[in-house]
Amino acid sequence: MSAGMQYAAWEGSAHAIRTGLPAFDAVFETSFWQHLASRPDAAADFDAAMADSVTESCELITQDPALRGATVVADIGGGNGKLASTMLDTHPHLSVLVVDLPGVVERAARALTRFGERARVEGADFLTRVPTGGDTYVLCRVLSDWDDTHAAILLDNCRAAMREGDALLVVGGLRRPGQPAARGLLDLHLLMIIGGRERTEAETADLLASAGFRLDRVEHSLSERTSLVAATAV
User: Fold this and answer.
1) What angle do CA 141, 139, 146 make, to 5 degrees?
2) What single string gives the DSSP state of each residue in 221-233?
3) Are 189 and 6 contacting, i.e. CB atoms less than 8 angstroms apart?
4) What residues contact residue 140 under an 8 Å CB cut-off, 6+ apart?
5) Which of 169, 160, 146 is nearest to 216 (CA)?
6) Cα Rg of the chain, angstroms
């Protein structure tokens, strides 16, 4: 996946650095997400790549104590349902609602058929609204896809859908001082493709606080490439 269109998007790197806008848009004259929506083959490649690379994230989430007390988990930006399937297999008491764009959740619905009524999907643009109904909300490798403005909108929409005391799990990479320079290349790559960025724990805490969440704890995978930020709606 990265060696194809994403590699070509770096031709627009000067545009991205000057403007802060994605290089992909300048090179291909459409956004990365719009491109996936119009190209089933590219969307299938993206789904496969995400499913292969989400293992550490799934482990952090399914092992988190918040899921033991949860009843309905809302997987926001849940893609093709890989995380939802893992949660449902690991925790038989759970139901999961996968929320993503309408064309995306169609693929998730097919993958989740075996779980029957325990799995539901809902098509929605989470930058416009986030559905209610969960007691635990998960953003797995979603927040870093967006710049600060759009990340704040996403968190505001999550908080609007949640009740006081509900749990939010934000999973992805956290930038930390002293990490190898190669780690920063992912941060730069997010800018080139979708205009996103990785954040430090402090930057993440600030975004959460502004949206009405209290940061409770931070957990890291064994490799320390992936982190889970647990927060509570206040």
Assistant:
1) 60
2) -TTSS-EEEEEEE
3) yes
4) 54, 57, 58, 61, 75, 77, 78, 83, 169, 171, 172
5) 169
6) 17
Tokens 């749990």, located at residue: 167
**HSE-CB of 85 using CA atoms within 13 angstroms:** 15
Each residue's pLDDT tens digit, 168-226: 999 998 887 776 655 668 888 999 999 998 899 999 999 999 999 999 999 998 888 89
CB atoms within 10 A of CB 7: 12
CA 6/CA 22 separation, integer angstroms: 11
b vs e for 122-148, b when ≥16 Cβ sit within 10 Å of the residue's Cβ? ebbebeeebbeebbbbbbbbbbbbbbe
In what helix (H) or strand (E) does residue 154 lie, and over which residues does it extend?
helix 148-161
Closest CA to 61 of 47, 48, 44, 76: 76
* Pair of tokens at residue 89: 């297999």
Query: pTM higher than 0.85 for the full model?
Result: yes
